[in-house]
């Protein structure tokens, strides 16, 4: 009879025992600060894989357009221009002005994953080749 009484008892649901918290100790040694300073890049430097650049002449004036892939910033002759980004089924488009001309940077997916996004510059509908120098 005692076996039957203990078998039907419900287990008491109690509070879980709290886990021990780990303490994180930060050392304030000057050598780690020096290592951090050496790893930082100088201000204004950008990795070459994150930048597209187009150079050509427009109405006899040299024009340079720089496009940062990571921030989607567009620079025309060292001046940042306002862009309007549109996202489409095929990719993205960034519209901006170059003087009185309409510029557009179109980003489309490549044929395979290794290519990633392919960016092309159009000024008034004409494709401008990328500067490879």
Layout of helices and strands:
Blueprint lengths: L1 H6 L22 H10 L11 E8 L2 E8 L5 E3 L2 E3 L2 E4 L3 E8 L2 E9 L7 E7 L2 E3 L5
Antiparallel strand pairs: 1-2, 2-3, 3-4, 5-6, 6-7, 7-8, 8-9
Low-confidence segments, ≥5 residues, pLDDT <50?
A: 27-42
What is the mean pLDDT?
A: 77
Q: Order of strands across the widest beta sheet?
A: 5-6-7-8-9
| Succession of helices and strands | HHEEEEEEEEE
* Alpha-carbon Rg, integer: 29 Å
Query: What is the end-to-end distance?
Result: 93 Å
**Number of beta strands:** 9
Largest sheet: 5 strands, antiparallel
- Helix content percent band: 10-25%
Number of helices: 2
> From the helix content, strand content and strand pairing, which structural class follows?
mainly beta
Gross morphology is elongated
Strand content: 35-45%
What does the model show?
- The protein has 133 residues and is mainly beta.
- Helix content is 12%, strand content 40%.
- The chain has 2 helices and 9 strands; from the N terminus they run ααβββββββββ.
- The chain has a 5-stranded antiparallel beta sheet, with no helix packed on it. A 4-stranded antiparallel beta sheet has the order 1-2-3-4, with no helix packed on it.
- β1 and β2 form a beta hairpin.
Features:
133 residues; mainly beta; 9 strands; 12% helix
In short:
The protein is built from 2 helices and 9 strands; from the N terminus they run H-H-E-E-E-E-E-E-E-E-E. By secondary structure, it is mainly β.
């Amino acid at each position: 009879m005692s076996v039957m009484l203990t078998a039907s008892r419900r287990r008491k649901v109690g509070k879980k025992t709290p886990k021990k918290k780990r303490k994180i100790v930060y050392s304030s040694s000057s050598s780690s600060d020096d290592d951090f300073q050496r790893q930082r890049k100088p201000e204004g430097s950008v990795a070459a894989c994150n930048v597209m650049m187009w150079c050509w002449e427009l109405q006899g004036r040299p024009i340079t357009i720089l496009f940062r892939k990571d921030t989607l910033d567009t620079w025309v002759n060292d001046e940042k221009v306002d862009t309007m980004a549109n996202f489409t089924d095929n990719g993205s488009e960034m519209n901006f002005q170059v003087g009185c001309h309409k510029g557009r940077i179109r980003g489309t997916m490549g044929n395979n994953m290794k290519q990633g996004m392919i960016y092309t510059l159009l000024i008034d509908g004409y494709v401008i080749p990328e500067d490879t120098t």
